[in-house]
Amino acid sequence: MTSELSEKAKENLRRNEDSRKKDSKYVKIEPGEKRTLHFDPEKMEPVDSEYNGEKTIRYQYTVTDPNQPDQSEKWFQLSKRNSAQVDTLLAEGKSILKVHRIGAGKDTLYMFTPA
Question: What distance in Å separates the CA atoms of residue 40 and residue 73, rounded to the nearest whole number?
């Protein structure tokens, strides 16, 4: 049996989702989502990771959301290809970037533009 959720139930679900995002140390961007992030060029490093059962190196950036100044720092991990795009912009002195996620899984592509 399915039924339409009440406004209170919908609000409770939104609150739970917001709480999970706030408590996480990682930034998660959903397919199609666009976010603005501030990348700290002094806080980035390669990290060992596992992706689809294979060991790989990801590039971990410490980021903040400039639209939420009271939020703590979070980590944003990227592939080698996506990391190269971010590094190019950081080298140009552009650390506040608009991030647009396209696709999901292995087909994920991120587009980065200066904010």
Answer: 10
